[in-house]
Specification:
single chain, alpha+beta, Small Protein B, Chain: A, 7-stranded antiparallel β-sheet, two-stranded antiparallel ribbon
Length: 154
C-alpha cells in the first residue's frame, strides 16, 4: 500500500444530508494499535456515531472500527466508546452548546495530520424533511447550471 492510499480520509457523507453543521472542531482521538491499523486499511464506519461529554471528557459512541484481520486475541472491540482529545475550555464551551435543544456532536470525518489521526467533530442541528428536500433541489439547480456553462464553453 502506498503512502497516499493510507492517507485517505474517512468521511461521514450521510451527516451532511441529515444534519446542518453549525461549527467544526479538530480533535485528537485515543485509539489502540489494532484500531489504527484497521483505519489505515479503510475499515471504519462513521454512520450513526455521536459524541457526548461525560465527566469533563468527550467520548464518541457507535464509531465502528472493524477488527484488524491480522490481529491476535487482544484485538479491539469494534463499537467501544473512544475518547476525543480537546482542550478543557473547548469541552466547556461544547457542554453549553449541546444543552441547547436540537444540537448534537457528530464525527464528520477521520483524517491524518502528519502521523496523527484526527477527528473533525461537528456541532450539528438535525434537518427536517422539507429542509432535506430544499437542499437536494438547490444541489440539482447548481448541477444544471454547471452543465449549461460547460456546454457553452465547448
Amino acid at each position: 500500500m502506498s503512502k497516499d492510499e493510507s492517507r485517505q480520509a474517512i468521511v461521514n457523507r450521510k451527516a451532511y444530508h441529515d444534519y446542518e453543521v453549525m461549527e467544526k472542531f479538530e480533535a485528537g482521538i485515543e485509539l489502540r494499535g489494532t484500531e489504527v491499523k484497521a483505519i489505515r486499511g479503510g475499515h471504519a464506519n462513521l454512520r450513526d456515531n455521536y459524541a457526548q461529554v461525560t465527566k469533563g471528557e468527550l467520548w464518541v459512541h457507535n464509531l465502528h472500527i472493524s477488527p484488524y484481520r491480522h490481529g491476535n486475541i487482544m484485538n479491539h472491540e469494534p463499537l467501544r466508546p473512544r475518547r476525543l482529545l480537546l482542550h478543557k475550555r473547548e469541552i466547556q464551551r461544547l457542554i453549553g452548546k449541546t444543552q441547547e435543544k436540537g444540537l448534537t456532536l457528530i464525527v464528520l470525518r477521520l483524517y491524518w495530520k502528519g502521523n496523527y489521526l484526527k477527528a473533525e467533530v461537528g456541532l450539528c442541528r438535525g434537518k427536517k424533511l422539507h429542509d432535506k428536500r430544499a437542499a437536494m433541489a438547490d444541489r440539482d439547480v447548481k448541477r444544471q447550471i454547471q452543465r449549461a456553462m460547460r456546454r457553452d464553453l465547448e
